[in-house]
Amino acid sequence: MTDHPSLQPYVDAWTQSIEAISELVQPLAEGEWNRRTDCPGWSVRDVVSHIIGIECELLGDPRPIHSLPRDLYHVRDETSRHMEVQVDIRRHHTAPEMTSELEYTVIRRSRQLRNEKRQPDEEVRHVLPGEAPITLERLLQIRAFDVWVHEQDIRRALRTPGDLDSAAAHVSRDVLVAGLPGVARAADAPAGSAVVFDVSGPVEFMRTVRVDDQGRATVDGSVSLGPTVTLSLGWETYVRLACGRTRPEKVAEDVKIEGDAELAQRILRRFAVTP
Question: Which of 62, 221, 226, 257 has its CA 20 to 30 A from that of 26?
């Protein structure tokens, strides 16, 4: 256990998800590692490689020196290029090599987290290039979120649903909800508007984004009387949209819209909040 109780929920959520991933991929045949996931351009192997690579960097391991191929359509900016190096360098690793490295990385990282002595508000390096330092607490929250989202990528690829209501799922809800004001701003929600997100399923919640007269957007859990628009959708659909795993037109039947339909469509087109 870490020295600070406020960090432990994130550590526990991360642990549950990364161990679930390890269990999911352990029995896979070689070909199953190549199954395509909803994460653009990545297979099951690539997703696991990404997780290994990030955790190794947090352990202080040096980044590999590697030149990427030029034909990777999903590599479009410096962030995706940075992330792809850890993925591409493992594309020819065998199934046993992948499971062994994942297990060893989980052991090392778990030991590091158990011995964590830093304060929750201490600033640490962000995992994304060019980003300002963040607090240790925020970093651990993001890691729990990232690993859970990728666990769901793998589960959908393998058709093995589960953990939609795990501890990390609730951490992920908080991360995604925090991005809703940015979604409203990107969609040009007008001043004085209120946008309600009514989410059902394993993680159930309702949030209202309010845009004040100066155009500032905030989110809260209070009920809005006569909202500008209400979007009702299931938790898994919400996650897939918010994480850029699907397009609005592909899940149109799963999203109920009441109110300003034009604003709703602008919101859905800008719903993704992950890099």
Answer: 62
